[in-house]
Amino acid sequence: MGDDVHVRVKVFSTGGTIEKVYDEHAGILHNSPSRFDHILSQMRLPSVQIDHHGLMGKDSLDMTQADRELIKESVEAALPSFDAILIVHGTDTLEETGELLCSELKDLSVPIILTGAMRPFEFRDTDAFQNIFESLIACRLLPPGVYCVMHSKVLRFPGVSKDHGLLTFVKSGSGTNVTNTH
Predict the structure, then answer these.
(1) What is the number of other CB atoms lying within 10 angstroms of the CB of residue 161?
(2) What angle (nearest 5°) sits at the alpha carbon of residue 96, between those of residues 11 and 113?
């Protein structure tokens, strides 16, 4: 796509750490209304048309199979109308959703990207802004497929998993520092 061409991105937010807020009264982090629009408001995106839909506001550890099916069905319905799909997801079970999408959605014509954050957007040392920014660039550049985009890496499903020691995602068999899109 050329520099002046708009890319149409459908964004589904599902909750996860990226969207958690700190409740000072209760002393806990919880998912509240989506933070995605607030993140976007801090970016210059003149050639990106974003249609955001909050599917749910759950920690990914609380997601059910029915939730993953809702994500899959929502992605399927959006595929014909957009140039890319971005799913903002909790990192603890992002790989399960990515594997489901990879195995059940065939003959894709656009990239489907899953991203999230290890630290909430509201935290000073968050990785949320970086991961959203990188994912929006990937929406413009990647060929059709299902991907995890985080921490300056593009990893194509299947075989993507969270490395709990390094707090990032890796591709099975590719080592921890290798970006692999195939």
Answers:
(1) 16
(2) 30
Q: How would DSSP label each residue in 24-66?
A: TTTTEEEE-S--HHHHHTTS--TTEEEEEEEEEEE-GGG--HH
What is residue 96's predicted lDDT score, i.e. its pLDDT? Answer: 96
Q: What is the mean pLDDT of residues 42-60?
A: 85
The mean pLDDT of 24-37, rounded to a whole number, is: 58
How many contiguous H segments (helices) and E segments (strands) does the chain have?
4, 10
- Bridge partners of 149, per DSSP, are 154
Q: What residue ranges define each of the domains in the chain, with the CATH number in brackets?
A: 7-171 (3.40.50.1170)
Average pLDDT, the chain: 83
Report whether the peptide linkage leading into residue 46 is cis, meaning its omega lies within 30 degrees of zero.
no
Q: Return the ∠ at Cα 117 (arms to 57 and 22), rounded to 5°.
A: 60
